[in-house]
Design brief:
This protein is mainly β. It folds into two domains: 158 residues, Sandwich (Immunoglobulin-like); 99 residues, Immunoglobulin-like, CATH 2.60.40. It contains one helix and 20 strands. Strands 1, 4, 6, 7, 9, 11, 12 and 13 form an eight-stranded mixed β-sheet that branches. A five-stranded antiparallel β-sheet has the order 2-3-5-10-8, with no helix packed on it. It has a four-stranded antiparallel β-sheet with strand order 17-16-19-20, with no helix packed on it. Strand 6 and strand 7 form a beta hairpin. The chain is elongated, with a radius of gyration of 35 Å.
Amino acid sequence: MRVRRLARVPLTALLVLGFHLAAPGAARAAEPGWTAAPASPPGAAAARPFFYLEGIPGTVLEDRLALANPTDRERTVTLRGADAYNTADGAFAVRPAGQPARAGAWISFGGHTTVKIPPRNRAVVPFTVTLPADAVPGDHPVALVAAESGHEAGVRVHLRVSGPTLAALTVEDVSVAGRGAAAEVRYTLVNRGNVALVPELALRADGLFGEVTGRPGHRLPVELLPGQRVELTEPWPGAPVLDAVDLTLTVTAPGGARATARASARFVPWSVAGRTGAGLLALSAAAATAWLLVRGRRGRRGTPGEAGAGAAEPSVREPELTGASK
């Protein structure tokens, strides 16, 4: 399955499908040409970087998309709505054309799914988002996708259905790779609620002799969408070279979301491990040799058939009876 993937950018910036970023608020095709952006209301001081729409179930929401063509030839652009999701590493992406859409299917351009933009001109296209009567409260990430001749650009829509919201997440599959300054912590975040989360992570490490340098709380470069699972890595330059450490990952997000997970890691330098291993092998060999020598001597002393003064006494003597008549 081919996936249209968006590079990670600040959450307030426009997300573009596989193309260079245009000026703030606009999505530009790979080659110089048309742009797509939220239409600004009359008298607006600044361009909108994305759409934000919210309503109760059964509501029809309206807004406008601006398509600009600064080139000398006419452009023909097709429009559609698409569901958004997180890729495995947390990037924002939209479903390709032809895949079944859920919230993306709520978007309609009426009879204007194909738009011709005259040279050095712009077109403003109205669209609606119809929230079903049974729409589930919470965030429903979608995007408006404009395409021409294989080039696509997407403008994000922050869409929320009014109602109870829940901010919840879990941290899973924690492990440590590497050692020293090259160590990193690998883990999985899962959004268990119905709103998008911008999480923060703190890492605490406790070694055999006290607390080890971890990572203070800091914002992660990912927006975790509802129901999504992402696999992330966290650099850990303060990892020890020689120690046994218990790690505690604490992840929080606005709205009261909080989760912790724990893991253990053992750090032993290869040079120390090699010397220790060689020493243990030598000690084991010496112990085995000594055991064989002792066993050999005992075997010779107790061999039947040896006569004379040097014959060994029986290893087991008959018990002497006391108090018996002789």
